[in-house]
Amino acid sequence: MTFDNLKNLRVDRDIKQKDVAKVLNVSQNTYSQYETGVIALTAEVLIKLSDFYGVSIDYLLDRTDNPEINI
Predict the structure, then answer these.
(1) In a 3-state reduction of DSSP, which class is residue 20?
(2) Could you give the CA distance from residue 31 to residue 29 in angstroms, rounded to a whole number?
(3) Backbone angles phi and psi of 39, in degrees to 5
């Protein structure tokens, strides 16, 4: 399973995989495998990515087209 919204957020903001990988404290290769669905996203990674991009976890997982965080 690929995560299109996850990749699109990064590409639209002109951020390199290696830069997101640094935020997550993983290698660029590991981050690449998150985007392509080779490695499952953990709750910890999802929370960090949600905070980094300012979007909901459901948006990161392509469960909604609405990036807003509903509190």
Answers:
(1) helix
(2) 5
(3) -110, 135
Identify which of 43, 34, 45 has the alpha carbon closest to the alpha carbon of residue 2. Answer: 34
Q: What pTM was computed for the model?
A: 0.88
Written as six digits, the tokens of 62 are 């392509």
Please state, for a pLDDT cut of 90, what percent of the chain lies above it. Answer: 77
Token pair for residue 51?
């905070």
Give the burial class of 31: count Cβ atoms within 10 A of its Cβ; 0-12 exposed, 13-18 middle, 19 or more buried: buried
Residue range 3-25, pLDDT digits in tens? 899 999 999 999 999 999 999 99
